[in-house]
Amino acid sequence: MDLPSNDNPTLLTPTSRHYCKILSVEDDQDYQEALLNGLSALNYDNKEVEFLTASSAADAATVIAANPDISVMFLDVVMETDVAGLRLIRTIREVIGNDLVRIVLLTGQPGMAPVDDLIDQYDIDDYWCKADLTQSHLQTIVLSNLRTWEHLSDMKEARHGMQLLLASSQRIASKSDIVEYTHSILEEVGQLLNINSGGIVCFLHTEDDLIEHARIVAASGEFSSYVHRDLLSVASKEEILKGVVEQASKQKGHVFLEGFSVLYFSNKELDEREYMVVVKLNRALAANEINLLQIFCENIGAGFRNVALHNKLTELAYVDPILGLYNKNWLLREIRNMLSWEREKATLLMVYVDDLAYTESVLGAKYCDQLILSLYDHLNEFFDKTADIALLERDTLMLVVYDNQDYNESSLERIIHTNIKVEKATHSLDLTISSVKFSEFSSYNPEQLISVGKSTLARAKYDGVAYLAFCNELASAMFGRYELLQDLREAILNNEIVPYFQPKVSLKDNALIGFEALARWEHKTRGFISPELFISLAESSGLIDKLDRQMLRQSCRAIKALKGIGINVPISVNVAGNEIIRPDYFSNFKTILEEEQAPAELIELEITESQLINEKATINRHLSALKALGVHTNIDDFGTGYSSLAYLSTLSVSTLKVDHSFVWQMEESEKDFEILKMIIELGNILGLSVIAEGIETEQQKAHLLSLGCENGQGYLFAKPMSLENTIHWVQSGQ
C-alpha cells in the first residue's frame, strides 16, 4: 500500500496550554499576600498564570476538586490542626486521584523538616521553610515545578492517547467487510477526537473517477443519510469539503484544515482505489491529536489492505472463477447466517440443466457459460429477486427462495421447460428441479440441507421426473441407504460378501461348461440383501473396486477347490467398465492370479453392454491386454444397449450373453423372438460364443436350441449356490 507522504502536510497551528494555575493554601493571610506578591512578576513562557487561594485544608479540597488542572500548590503544614496539611495531601493523592499537581510543603518553624519516609509516604514534591524563600528563590521553585508538571501532563496525555489508540486499533482490526470497517473508522476517530459532528468515508478509482463522483461507503452524524451516494451530494451543501478532498487526492496525503480534516489512503495494488476519511470539526485540533491521528492512520492503512486482501480471498473462496457466480461455500455461509424468521419461509431449490455436456460438445464451452449466466438472470427474474443463487456444479444451480411458497411441478413449469436468450438467439432448456423446505427440516444444518437437496436431485434424474420434493419418506429411504452403506463398508472389510456360483451348461446335453460368480451378502440382522441394491450402492460410493477384487480372489480359490475334485471349468466374474480401464487394473488383476496361483484361462470377465459403450474410447486396449494374458471377456446383458456392429467387430471379446428379458418374453412377443434370433445370428457372424441367461423352462431351452444358441444358464439347471453347495452339486451328478 502507498502510505501517504506527510513531509509537507497542511496543518492547523497546533494548540497548546496557554495558562497555568497555582494554589496557595495558607491560614496566615499576611504570609499568603506576601507569597502572591512575590509571584506576581512570574513569567512562564509568556503564559497566563492564575492564582488560587484557600485559607484552610477544607477550603482547599473544594478548590482542588473544581480545578483538576492546578499545576503547583503551596501548602502550610499546620493549619486548623497539626495534621490538616498532611490529611489534605492524602485526599488529593488518594481520594481525588490527582497525582500530577506539584505539592510544595511550607513550614514557619526553622529546622522542623519532615523525615524522608514521610515525604515519600505522602508523595510530597518539595519542602521549604517560609523564612528561606526569597522572591528569586520562590520564582525558581515555581518555574521548576511548572515545567515538571507540564512534562508529566504531556506524558500522561500521551499514555492516555496511546491507550485509546491501541483500543481503537484492536477494535477495527476485527473488521473484514469494507462497510463495517469504514463505519468503525468513523466511530473510532470520533472517540479519539471527542467529536460528534460526523464524517464520511469515500473512495474513487484513481484512473477514472472525478472527485465529485467519489462513492460514499460510510457516513456518520449529520452525514448519515449520504451513504451510497456521490460526494457531490454532500459537497453541494458543504463548499469547503470538495476542496479539502481534492487537496488530499492531489497531494496524496492527509490534510488538516479549519472545518474539515481528511485522512488519505491509497490501495492501488490491491483494489485500485483511493480512500478518503473526512471528519467535520467544530474546533481546532491540538498537536497531540494530530500526532495521534497520524499514528492511527498507519493502522487504518494496514486495515484497508487487510480488507482488500480479505475480499480477494473471499472471491477465491466464494466465487466461481469462470462464471463469476457465488459457489456452494458462499451459499453455506448465507444459510448459516440466516435468522430464524428467514429459515421459516426459505426453500432450497436445486436446478439441473439437462444435457449441458452434450450442448457444450456441440456449441462450445463459451456458449454454455453464457447459457448458465442467462439462466441465472432468468431465475432471478422468475423469483422476483427474492432468491440467493449459487453454482453447485457447471450444470447445476442452487437457489434459496424466501417467499414461503409451496412449490410443485405445475408452479415451476415456466422454468422446467423454458426458453432463454443466448447470444441473440433463443435456446430451449429442460430442467430437473429438487426442493427442500427449511421449516420442515429445522434440525438440519446447512451442509445437510444442501446434501439432501443434491441427493433428491439425483433421485429425480434417476427416476426421470422433472420435479421432486424432499420429504420424510424420502429422508427415511436415504438415511436407510446411508446406514446400509456403513454396513457395506464393514462387510467388504471383513470379507462377509461371498460368491455364489451358477452353472453354465451346454443346452444339447446339460454338460457343465463353467460357472458365473455372483456376489451375495447375508446381512447380520436383515438377512440377504438384494444384489441390485448393494452393488449399485458400491458403485455410487466408490467401493466397487474393492468388491470386484474380493470376488476375483474368492473365485480363484473356488477354481482350485473345484480342480481338487476334478472339475476344470472357467469361472466368470463381473467387473465394472469404469474399473477395468483404471491404469492399475491389469497389474492388480495379474497380482491376484499369481498370489492365488490360478490359471488365467480359467478366469473370465463379464462386462455389461452399456458399460462397454460408456467406456468405448479406451476399453478395447485393456481388453486386448487381458486377452493376451489368456483371459476371455463376455458381454453381459447383450441386447439392452445400443452398440453397433462395427463397434462389436473391433472388441476383444469371446462371448455374447443374451439378456434374460428376451428369453422370458420370446414366447409371448414375436418382436423379442426376432431380436433373440438376430443376436444369436450376430454372434455366429462375429465368431463369438452365445449364451442365454435366465432359462427357466424346457420350452425356453428348446426354442433357444432351435435358434442356434448352444449354451445357457438359469434356474432350470441350478440356482446360484455357495461354494460348498456347488461342490456337492457337482459331486451328486448335477
UniProtKB/TrEMBL annotation:
SUPFAM superfamilies: CheY-like, EAL domain-like, Nucleotide cyclase. SMART domains: EAL, REC. The keyword Transit peptide does not apply. Keywords: Phosphoprotein. Residues 481-734 form the EAL domain. Residues 21-145 form the Response regulatory domain. The modification 4-aspartylphosphate is found at residue 76. Pfam families: DUF3369 (PF11849), EAL (PF00563), GGDEF (PF00990). The keyword Phosphoprotein applies. PANTHER family: CYCLIC DI-GMP PHOSPHODIESTERASE PDEF (PTHR33121), SIGNALING PROTEIN YKOW (PTHR33121:SF70). This is Diguanylate cyclase. It comes from Marinomonas pontica.
